[in-house]
Write the structure tokens for this entry.
Amino acid sequence: MTAVATAPVTETASRFRPHEIWRIVRLHTVNPSIFFGVPWIILGGAWAVTMVIALILRSAGISDAEDGFRYSWAVLSPQWYLIVVGVQALAYTFPFALGFGATRRDFWLGTAAMFLFVSIEMAAAIATLVQLEILTDGWWVGAGMFDALWYGIDGWLVDFYTTFALQLLVLFIGASITTVFMRWRMKGMMILLFGAVAVVLALIAGLTFTESWPAVFDWFGSIGLVGVFTVLLGLAAVCAVAGYLVIRRATPR
Amino acid sequence: MDESRPIFIQIAEQVENDIIDGALPEGSQIPSTNEFAAFLRVNPATALKGVNRLVDDGIVEKRRGIGMFVTAGARERLIERRRAEFAAQYIRPLIVEAEKLGIDIDELAGLLRAERIQS
Amino acid sequence: MTRTVVRASGLTKRYGSFTALDGVDLSIEEHRIYGLLGRNGAGKTTIMQLLTGQIFANGGELEVFGRTPAEHSDVLRRMCFIAESQRYPEDFTPAHVFKSAPWFFENWDAEYAERLVSDFRLPVKRRVKKLSRGQLSAVGVIVGLASRAPLTFFDEPYLGLDAVARHIFYDRLLEDYAEHPRTVVLSTHLIDEVANLLEHVILIDQGRILLDRDADEVRGSATTIAGARRVVDDFVADRPVIGRESLGGLASVTIDGRLDQAERIRAAELGLELAPVSLQQLIVHLTGTDLAGTTEQEAAA
């Protein structure tokens, strides 16, 4: 004799479930080297190279290398790695979490929370390092790694904001593109790729034929540094939302 | 464990054999269901079925909180039952095989006596 | 009175033009060990993936603990799904897996997991990438056992485990199941090894259920009768035949059903041989193959 399973499960009434979301954050940090170790190793390596170059220049008697260092991309060196981290969070951690009984919604929310923490951490650290570099006059040897590109110009808060926006975008872009693969596999990726290329080409063609490039540059100039990075932040938000919508029906295989 | 009959029947029969042999005297305790299951590597539910069969036949009884024990008179009951089945289970096939080989009734009786003396 | 923990009706799953599951009806009662048997590609993994919310159905209804499983964490947290090819995050070690398991399985027993680690001789600090196939399977098996999840699925997790390790798994499973009853669903090719563990057998072939019966009923539910062809044919004349082999004038016919005492005697008189049919053999007859389709299934002995 079997009985119908009547109301055997207590439905969690609240849709905000901190425990389920927090455990995803913990899952990402079980191996802390991924988000916190390797990026700093990369930055450390780039810093070491920068120092060596600075010392060589010093000993060769060149003292106005500051301008050269301003164009150094070393501060952005971990970003390529962090795109891959975003991809792998979906490619590996997602199937694992799903296998352990996480919901897709909680996984995306937990991963987004993780991305937020990491972006805040990186932004605070780098903005601070910029100030330190300025204070020590290039680490006492005139080296320029953090006080480069757009950094060190408008103060700690702007540096924090720009790094935060960029970091969030880098992490979300890798992750959200991978959600497309997780849901629609190769076909989806191809469509996304060709679609993106088509849109970019159309945009470039359109801007070229209407000779609007100067207008575009003017506009970017007018919104300033903070404005440009707000656009990037907006893009990160778009990726975050898109990823959430796509992952809802994604499957691990 | 052979595949021709359900395992729970084989478990029950093994216990019955042990009772008849004297390995499990009346009043002694038999292994628990879980012990049977673990030892024979079978599902506990199967072991339970076998033990329940013994309970239903009155061969074994459950003493709450202690375990399962062989009932008084179990051995006699089993022997009675086996006697009743003896002819159909052993004699008939013996006769069938003997007829196949052309061994007549007198020769068969002689063989029986000879084997008896030897064992 | 036992509870139904899974109820599926008309469950369908398609991958493009390929129908993996075709209108499957099944129900799973609590506190039993189920065997989900079938060939590669028959649909066993698909069923398990649907039941654990890993994939979405194209049709039919599915209830696990009273609700559809996908995206409902109150259902998902009561299940543990050990898949044949489980992926682990980059650079994870078994230690990482066991550390994160209690966050997902509220009944996780860490001490039990430790005992199992030494039973299976698992190097917990070695990266999952560097583990052998057998050690990888051991990780899955340990999670499945130590999770004590009310509904646990083992999708052929013992591929790569050697015979000794497999028997350790069966022993631990039975032991733990006896002490902490739960519902276990096992899918496998190695039918003879697990046949005695199963309480209920579900046989699936090409997306359809062929058999869904109590294991004890299935065991010994068929008989093979062999002898001179005409005699055999005569004997089985009005019985359901599920398999037939012949060599010259001899025939071996497998029928669905047991012979009673009288029939056994008559068979002996007719000079016919009777042989039992194991679960494995029965399935061979029903599906026309021994289920171990590819060489990958050869158990590393």
Remarks:
- The interface with chain B takes residues 32-33, 167, 170-171, 174-175, 177-179, 196-199, 215-217, 219-220, 223, 261, 265, 268-269, 271, 275-279 of chain C (CB under 8 Å).
- Residues 10 and 245 of chain C are 36 Å apart (CA to CA).
